[in-house]
Design brief:
The chain is an alpha+beta fold. It has a single domain (2-194), classed as Rossmann fold, CATH 3.40.50. The chain has helices at 2-7, 37-45, 75-78, 85-89, 137-146, 155-167, 179-190; strands spanning 13-22, 25-30, 50-53, 56-60, 63-66, 71-73, 98-100, 114-115, 118-124, 131-134, 148-149, 170-176. Helix 5 crosses helix 6. The protein is globular. The termini are far apart.
């Protein structure tokens, strides 16, 4: 069913990433497998963010549309999220993934399209404090292409979609380590009056 529904959405560029918003600002967090996207998106739910999806974002002409499905957490990530301990305890042995519906965690599904204010490309930095590094848009475009699938219309539309999204967005590499510092870095970018720290230190 999942594959068929994505196939029916051939007009969209599909980005491997999560989408959320906070205080009127929308973000996308993309990156390679095991970079921490689902772990970060799940934690942001408990930080007051509206989290739309953790794995696939649909993109067309600079506007993103979340593609909601159950969050799929690896067993290692479950241990980093004490907020879901009671849910995990009720689940049979988790081998590859723990599939979570946000409603099981007390949140409503939200599906809301719109332009992007900030794009984060996540790189794994497990066990260390998160580090936030501004990223040139031309570099971000290349990295997003490595984590996306072009639409049926071809590469020209693919490039158009990504460039339109990045045109008015701020772009950062987030070396995603300890969750507390990663969340602090995300909030700093979305709330500029607090200033942006790239030191990787926890607040």
């Amino acid at each position: 069913m999942h594959d068929l529904s994505l196939e029916a959405l051939g007009e969209f560029t599909k980005i491997h990433g999560g989408c959320a918003s906070w205080r009127g600002k929308r973000l996308i967090a993309t990156g390679p497998e095991r970079a921490g996207k689902t772990t970060l998106m799940t934690r942001l739910l408990y930080e007051g963010f509206a989290v739309y999806c953790d794995d696939i974002v649909l993109l067309s002409r600079g506007i993103v549309l979340p593609y909601p499905r159950r969050f799929r957490l690896r067993p290692q990530s479950v241990a980093l999220l004490p907020e879901i301990a009671s849910i995990a305890a009720r689940t049979p042995e988790v081998r590859e993934h723990l599939a979570l519906d946000p409603t099981e965690m007390g949140f409503e599904w939200q599906i809301d399209g719109g332009p992007v204010d900030v794009v984060f490309f996540l790189e794994p930095n497990h066990g260390s404090a998160a580090e936030l590094v501004p990223c040139p848009k031309y570099s971000m475009a290349k990295m997003i292409m490595s984590e996306s699938t072009l639409p049926a219309a071809g590469a020209g539309i693919w490039v158009r979609d990504i460039c339109a999204m990045l045109d008015k967005a701020s772009t950062y590499v987030l070396r995603c380590g300890q969750l507390d510092s990663a969340v602090a870095a995300v909030k700093q970018v979305l709330e500029p009056m607090h200033g942006i720290s790239t030191s990787g230190e926890d607040e």
